[in-house]
Amino acid sequence: MSADSSPSADSTDAPKSPGKPRLTEEEKKQNHIASEQKRRAAIRAQFDRLAELTPGMAGLGRSEGVVLSKVVEFAREQVEERKRLIAEIEERGGVVAMEDKVF
Prior knowledge:
The chain is mainly alpha-helical and 103 residues long. It is 60% helix and 0% strand. The protein has helices at residues 9-13, 25-53, 64-91. Helix 2 (25-53) packs parallel to helix 3 (64-91).
C-alpha cells in the first residue's frame, strides 16, 4: 500500500457527519428519557397482555408482582393437569409419545 492511498491524520479528526450538529447534553438527556418511557410502556403492555390471558386476574391490581405470581400459579396448574391427563390416557391403555410428555 502506498503512502498516497492511506488515510491522512487530518481525515480521522474530521466529524463523521459534517452537516449534522452534535446533540447537546439536554437533548441527550431528553432522548434517554423518551427511550426509557417507551421501553417501560412496552413492558407494561406485555404485563397487561399476560393479565388478560391469565384466569383469575379479573379485578386484581396490575402490579408486576401480582401478574407474575398469578401466571406462575396458572402455569403450574396447567402442567399438573397435563400430567394427570397423560396418566389417565396411559391407565386406559393409550400410548403417549415421549416428546408429548415434556413439561
